[in-house]
Automatic annotation (TrEMBL):
N-formimidoyl-L-glutamate binds at Y151, N336. Keywords: Cytoplasm, Histidine metabolism, Hydrolase, Iron, Metal-binding, Zinc. The keyword Metal-binding applies. GO terms for cellular component: cytoplasm. Pathway: Amino-acid degradation; L-histidine degradation into L-glutamate; N-formimidoyl-L-glutamate from L-histidine: step 3/3. CDD domains: Imidazolone-5PH. Its main location: cytoplasm. It is found in: Cytoplasm. Belongs to the metallo-dependent hydrolases superfamily. HutI family. Zn(2+) binds at H79, H81, H260, D334. This is Imidazolonepropionase. Catalyzes the hydrolytic cleavage of the carbon-nitrogen bond in imidazolone-5-propanoate to yield N-formimidoyl-L-glutamate. It is the third step in the universal histidine degradation pathway.
């Protein structure tokens, strides 16, 4: 028999995130509204009086009084590197003193440092760290998150990371979407076991790409956890040719491409994402109008990561221009040791203040369009039939999320209709 899982009633506003991004009502707002949830899915959304007549809160397993509050879809954080070990807070200080991200990386810090810490961590430590980050994320309203591997750069550790990601998904109410990112950096010879590579530091990038293609991708596919394959196509990382080789090899084995593109410099990653039919092209700080047009034509979701630009002191991606060009812009945290914020609320504040999105557009970018970047069109909306992943704010409107920058306005989180926070 169907179960009336929950009724959320009396909300000042339900932001359904079903409107057009550039249109008058991107957030698809309903005022004085209720959401009825049957078997974990939205059964009705509409005026409280109408919804509660058919679905009485008294008969629900959970009745949530949202009087004077706003209800939004749970956030879909479509880009993170949340599985790692170690601490790089001192690099944050170094960056404040003027050291660049590229300099840290070239000196064996940055990603390389996290690789050393991650390789040295036990399976339990990797899982425990990730679960801790998921706790913070869900408290800030995230109900689905993508997590990448890429701090192993060898087959064994890449598989261990994906295993931790898979186990975290089983154990935590937040849904975790796994991405393989063996091509996150070219490993440094100094970090490799004796004799693995020949002479030369760093390790030859082309040789490493062959390892990713011949060794890592087949092992990852055999393991059966990863859904996407991502590449860092940028200055100091992989060229377009190397990235294409990895993404094509992954796609042939069923891994959907994603690309870190035009973050540190313009290197052609956005056009590559369009060429290979990637689910998303991410960062895009240096993307041109032509790049954006190519992404729109190829139906690739641009994922903007304003927290990273904030931390790097870099210019932000042109979010406003992309929305105006008709792109289905998504916004995500990029949570990683170089961008240590799990908060989608903070990302949406930056998307508004620094990239020119309206609060309603930022909401859609953090929910429905994040789901789009993960090929999960049923998530990130409050719509009949969709999984009831919802956040109830301690504020009367979605505008209070970016308005209250630096403050968490999420009071209650429902995952498939069941309270997991609040
Ligand atoms: O998306 N740019 C490449 N990868 C991450 C940073 C990872 C790190 O610095 O540990 C990013 O920003
Ligand atoms: Fe990233």
């Amino acid at each position: 028999m169907a179960e009336l899982t929950a009724v959320v009633h009396g909300a000042a506003e339900v932001a359904t995130a079903t409107g057009e991004l550039g249109g008058d009502d991107p957030a698809g707002l309903r005022s004085d509204a209720a959401v009825a949830i049957v078997d974990g899915a939205v059964a009705a959304v509409g005026p409280t009086e109408e919804v509660t007549r058919e679905y009485s809160p008294e008969n629900a397993a959970y009745a949530v009084d949202a009087s004077g509050r706003a209800v939004i879809p749970g956030y879909v954080d479509s880009h993170t590197h949340a599985c790692f070990a170690g601490d790089r807070s001192d690099e944050f200080e170094a960056k404040l003193r003027g050291t660049t991200y590229g300099e840290l990386l070239a000196g064996g810090g940055g990603i390389h440092r996290t690789v050393r810490a991650t390789r040295a961590a036990s399976d339990d430590e990797l899982l425990g760290n990730l679960l801790d980050h998921l706790d913070v994320m869900v408290a800030h309203g995230t109900t689905t998150v993508e997590v990448k591997s890429g701090y192993g750069l060898d087959t064994e550790t890449e598989l261990r990371m994906l295993d931790a990601i898979d186990r975290a998904d089983d154990r935590h109410p937040v849904d975790v979407v796994p991405t393989f990112m063996g091509a996150h950096a070219v490993p440094r010879e100094a970090d490799e076991p004796e004799g693995r590579y020949g002479e030369g530091d760093p390790v030859n990038a082309d040789d490493y790409v062959e390892r990713v293609v011949d060794e890592q991708i087949p092992a990852v596919v055999d393991q059966g956890v990863a859904e996407f394959c991502d590449v860092f196509c940028d200055e100091g990382a992989f060229t377009v040719e190397q990235s294409r080789r990895v993404l094509r090899a992954g796609a042939e084995r069923g891994l959907t491409p994603k690309v870190h593109a035009e973050e540190l410099a313009h290197r052609g990653g956005a056009k590559l994402a369009a060429e290979v039919g990637a689910a998303s092209a991410d960062h895009l700080l240096h993307a041109t109008d032509e790049d954006v047009a190519a992404l729109v034509d190829a139906d690739v979701t641009p994922v903007l990561l304003p927290g990273t630009a904030f931390g790097l002191g870099a210019d932000y991606a042109d979010g406003r221009g992309m929305v105006d060009a008709g792109a289905p812009v998504a916004v995500a945290t990029d949570f990683n040791p170089n961008c240590h914020s799990q908060s989608m609320g903070f990302a949406s504040a930056l998307a508004c203040v620094e990239m020119g999105l309206t609060p309603a557009e930022a909401l859609v970018a953090c929910t429905r369009n994040g789901a789009r970047a993960l090929d999960r069109p049923d998530l990130g909306v409050v719509r009949e039939g969709a999984p009831a992943d919802l956040a109830v704010l301690d504020a009367p409107s979605h505008v209070h999320v970016p308005y209250s920058y630096g403050v968490n306005r999420v009071a209650t989180v429902l995952k498939e209709g069941r309270p997991v926070v609040g």
